[in-house]
Design goal:
The complex is a heterodimer of chains A (about 230) and B (about 130). In chain A, about 30% of the residues lie in helices and about 25% in strands. The N terminus of chain A is likely disordered. By secondary structure, chain B is mainly α. The N terminus of chain B is likely disordered. The chains are: A alpha+beta (about 230), B mainly alpha (about 130). Chains A and B meet through helix 1, strand 1, strand 2, strand 3 and helix 5 of A and helix 1, helix 4 and helix 5 of B.
């Protein structure tokens, strides 16, 4: 037993477990990247507060699920004024294949976005409500940053020294819009930086993407809805 | 996934017993190879090929194998229990996260709806369409 390299030690048990969990991660990843994603999941999940873990410039001419573009039109309806359109940052909810320029059917598809809100501005508004205490705001922030609020997904600040590219924000999944891919192709896919103009603010890293998709599935897809759909 | 965990654990434990069997026993090695084949795990096979030190090809006595297999089974059960427990812990963390999802408080939701009406700009930064 002493000579056996695979002796049943706690380390080996953990190692075996890690191996199994890694095998459940996306199959297209190289073993090395699977390991990296697994380490990030164990270290970060379900937080999305570390920009170095959440964002990544993919340097591609394609758009991807989770990319953020500026100037996306979102509509809302007020009884007094009817339909109004505002232009805001939006995060792509459509899957990456539907966004790909290489996809020959892309001309006929729409790209779906969710609206992004700047956290600081929202907090300022919250403080104007007398019934919302500081304690409640504190609880809200904890829940938001650990992604526990069903329809919201937290996005950390993104700096490209010396400029702030993107402030602390959150996505609201229940506020969406869409644009035809032919219109989206008129956007500048370059990343906004201190030296270059671009309409894309960020792409998500493997971990950020994993988290977004998991949150999306929790918000939109609930197998355990508790409704018996039989007559 | 469970099945796969069982397989990996089984093989690793199987290796423990093989490691103890450096003394030659003699006879055919078909049973042993068959057992290995049933395990269907590339890692273990590679390990066996690499670690001649353990002298696997001498593990051919049916009596010896049956003793080992009995031990092996009990160890597999134990390991299966351990890995399942660990897996449950991990999967529970994912499930807990799902279960812990909360709705935004009504006042916060009301404020967010209000915020939606005033956030953004009426015109894009440049004309694209």
């Amino acid at each position: 037993m002493e000579n056996c390299p695979n002796a049943e030690t706690p380390d080996n048990v953990r190692s075996n477990l890690a191996e199994q969990l890694i095998s459940a991660l996306p199959s297209y990843l190289s073993p090395e990247n699977k390991t990296r994603l697994f380490a990030d999941l164990m270290d970060q999940f379900p937080d999305s507060t570390n920009p170095n873990k959440v964002y990544l410039d993919l340097e591609s001419s394609n758009l991807f699920q989770g990319d953020c573009l500026i100037d996306i039109p979102f509509h809302f309806i007020l009884p007094e004024t009817g339909v109004t359109t505002h232009y805001c940052d939006g995060i792509i909810l459509s899957n990456s294949c539907d966004c790909s320029q290489e996809n020959i059917t892309v001309e006929s598809k729409n790209i779906v976005f969710s609206k992004i809100y700047v956290l600081k501005d929202y907090l300022n508004l919250l403080r104007s409500y007398p019934e919302i205490t500081d304690e409640k705001i504190k609880t809200f922030l904890v829940n938001l940053k650990s992604n526990k609020i069903s329809n919201l997904f937290f996005l950390p600040e993104l700096n490209k020294s010396p400029s702030l590219i993107f402030p602390e924000s959150f996505v609201r999944f229940d506020e969406t819009s869409f644009l035809p891919s032919s219109i989206i192709s008129k956007y500048n896919y370059n990343y906004k930086s201190t030296t270059e103009f671009g309409d894309r603010l960020f792409s998500l890293s493997q971990y950020g993407f994993y988290l977004l998709v998991y949150k999306l599935s929790l918000h939109f897809c609930r197998f355990r809805e508790g409704i018996e759909r039989y007559s | 996934m469970k099945k796969e965990i069982m397989t990996t654990s089984s093989l690793l434990i199987g290796m423990l017993f093989l490691a103890n069997s450096s003394s030659g026993i003699g006879g055919d090695n078909i049973d042993f190879l068959k057992t290995c084949a049933e395990l269907k795990h590339k890692y273990a096979i590679e390990q066996m090929e690499q670690q001649k030190y353990y002298n696997y090809y001498s593990l051919t006595s049916n009596d010896y194998l049956s003793t080992n297999i009995a031990k092996y089974d009990s160890q597999v059960s134990r390991m299966k229990e351990i890995t399942e427990d660990e897996t449950i812990v991990f999967m529970s963390a994912m499930q807990n996260f799902a279960d812990e999802q909360v709705e935004l408080e009504p006042t916060f939701q009301k404020a967010l709806n209000r915020f939606g009406e005033i956030t953004g700009t009426l015109m894009p930064s440049r004309k694209r369409f």
